[in-house]
Amino acid sequence: MDKEIVKITLDDYYKCRSIWDMKNCPYTESFINQIKAGNRMVYVYKINNEFIGEGNLVIKSDEKDYTIPNKRVHLSHLMVKKEFRNQGIGADILDFLIETAKKMGYSEISLGVDCGNDAAVHIYRKKGFEIFFIDKDEQGEYYKMLKSI
How many CB atoms lie within 10 A of CB 115? Predict the structure, then answer.
């Protein structure tokens, strides 16, 4: 089995629709605009060239506290196709993004996760992320988490 995590361009971004519902997601257009502006980098986990998981690093976010120029980068949109979950793929993507952010010169990485997503919160805590704020949006309450890298 051929596995790899690669950075993709906007030209290949549409292939992520095999991982998540791009058509009905209210954030798709915003993500595309961030990619075009160079503020969002998309990485995909591929098995035999099939897109299995995705994780993004956001350099500049409109969301308060998520990014600080040259210090804090934001981890966004980490997900794995349902049939491939609980196999360590999400943790592999997370480790890759943390290492990538470190190589880029960042000393902190932030993320947001729904308060009810216990599995994700558990993985993030295990990897050293700590809750620094609880916020609320139209989707409900979520944790803002932070890790020094």
Answer: 14
| Separation CA 84–CA 61 (nearest Å) | 29
**Cα–Cα distance, 134 to 142 (Å, whole number):** 6
The pTM for the full model equals: 0.94
Three-state DSSP at 86 gives coil
| Separation between Cα atoms, residue 24 and residue 14, nearest integer Å | 13
**What's the number of CA atoms in the CB half-sphere (13 Å) around residue 5?**
21
Residue 116 is classified by DSSP as T
Token pair belonging to 25: 């997601």
Question: pLDDT per residue over 17-41, tens digit each?
Answer: 999 999 999 999 999 999 999 999 9
Give 78-114 as a DSSP string: EEE-GGGTTSSHHHHHHHHHHHHHHHTT-SEEEEEEE
How do residues 50-104 score in pLDDT, each as one tens digit? 999 999 999 998 877 899 999 999 999 999 999 999 999 999 999 999 999 999 9
